[in-house]
Model the fold of this input.
Amino acid sequence: MINFLTNSNQYLALQVLLPCFAAIFSVVSGNNRIFVTIFSFLILLNSLMLSNLTWDNQELFYHFGGWIAPFGIEFKINILSAILNLLLNFVIFNFVLFFWHNHKLDINKIKDNSGSSLYYTLLFILQIGMNGILLTADFFNLYVFIEIFSLATYALLSLSSDKKSLLSAFNYLIIGTTAASFIVFGIGFLYSATGTLNIQDFIEKIPLVKNTKILVLGEIFFIVGFLIKAAIFPMHSWLVRVYSLTSAVNLVYIPVISSSLAFYILIKFLYYIIQPELFITFLNIIGVLAVIFGSFSPLFLKFDHEREDIRYFREMVIFSSFSFGGYILILLSLNNKKAAVLSIIFLLSDIIIKSLLFQINYFIEKSQMHNYQNNFSRCSYSNIFLIFVILTLLSHSSLPLSIGFVNKWSLFSLLLENNFYFTFMVILLSSLASLFYNYKLISLFYLTDKGYFLIKVNKFSLLSLLLFIFASYAMLYYYSPLNYLFQKL
Amino acid sequence: MSFFYLNKIIYYIAISIFVGGGYIISVSSNLMKKIMGLGMLQNGILLFYIAVGKVKDSNIPVLTEGETLYSNPVPHVLMLTAIVVGFATLSLGLAMIIKINDYFLTIDELEIEQQK
Done:
């Protein structure tokens, strides 16, 4: 027991085991709120512990069954995966804490208590997959955790008051599993080229087989699989369908987690594992297309006053999130250290901003549904909520006094340094477009004479928004230390 | 020159099963057929991995006297995991099809799209 407590590597295994236990126990616990919250808090505490242990740029290892790396499976954590782990577990903890009673609101299939505890079982299974993807140092293990994560996501996204969400979730299952099959095919090629599945061992063996056909084929399959998973522009249509039909409460955490995980793996694979010289042009073209699509398509969405479309805000956010993937790919196509670090910071700030946007969307849809059901003609108008919305959209449209502005500024200076003038022009134009659609979003709160977007928000729930706003400004304050931290990776 | 690469024919079979599965997924509107196509796609990968494990002129991977060359058992073990994953995906897909049939009274995608 003493040995267990002093050996800090055990926390790595616990990070996956704790959600495992929680998933099993929440089946039998029967809608016990305290139980789920405590478990979720324990997992968050454990990830806090892990990030504390890796703070001095240390790496922790855990070898399963005592088998040392190339033969056995190992877990490995460094400062980047620790911070991501902390942030994403916080997103889930935030969901459990603040959205407990709300998940029943428009998921009409969960009516009794037992169904509700099954919802949390799925949530914990999702957390197993998420933590595993972040911690594992083995290619095949990565695939297995991706599938665990995805299976939970398919089941959760099919829950909605709109029954067509079942069909869209089914199509998501087909596309997602096909993408995972591409990934596992790629891993097979990588394995037959190098003879190893351990990532560190793989990095050491790459120079021996550099630019052989089989290695390049494996890399192509792997990258294409993750581009489908991340819903980059030509393969985006499934994501629009599934996210616009599912219940708003699922959107509080699923889009944030799944896109950030896919981009984390892409950054890790393209910059830290292989060198992407062969794919630079491809990444740049795909990135530019994604930015153009992501920033101009929201402009063509019409707000339908007749239909009283409560899903307008949601669709705007979904479409605008495509340009974020484009920025990451453009940064990766620059292929230098500064760009890789900036892409990581983009990723972290996107987690914060996107979860803010989807939480705001949730509050909007909830108060509109209230309007329909109880025929409220007036809702109280929360000014604090509006301040939070403005601060979020400030960051989303990358205007000054926000983390989005600093990110955009660094991106522009980096592009000019590397003589990417065409990409620079495209991003400049797309930023103008994003100003325009963010103006359209904010005007929904102010300029409608029908008072359409009047929001009634629980004061306690506002705390969740406050925490994320605080996180975004903390990131702004510690911008250069954060940069320095990732520079050393 | 061995024109057909007969010793590599297993890879051609694996790839054609993979592509055939993808084709079935993309053309069929019946959800059941889509799931079947998905299973076929995964089976192509299973075959590919099993073929990767074979070493030329090798023995089965059981320790025996006087043998030095063995097949690689690791890809086979990996495929055990992949089979389980495929099974889980298949069950979830079938459960969704049952739910879809309950709500829409059909499992044809085009017919569901026409329903309001």
Remarks:
- Chain B has four helices and no strands.
- Chain B has a mean pLDDT of 89.
- Residues 15 and 24 of chain B are 14 Å apart (CA to CA).
